[in-house]
Please model this.
Amino acid sequence: MNLEAYLPVLLFILVGIGVGLAPMGLGKILGPNKPDAEKVSPYECGFDAFEDARMKFDVRYYLVAILFILFDLETAFLFPWGVALTDIGWPGYISMAIFLLEFVIGFAYIWKKGALNWD
Model:
């Protein structure tokens, strides 16, 4: 069995591990480490930890997070479209215009429903 063909794979894995571990090791060695009571205190979601860890959060937090991910991913479609606009021509332009129209209608809908309000 010839293992020479697996050398690039092994090298790729070792370099990947090195690239992942080297910055963490350098940060640990060279970075400042001055812990105090304030720095090591528990901290969650912008608030000091309180009550039980299993307490219920307001559903609006999750709704805004899901909407952020949804609209962020939809916005990510604009970058490849912009790069390939000269190649795709008018059909690509019209399809993106329809996509953006759906995007704006969805945004107006969630705004009107009050999904973005925190009061």
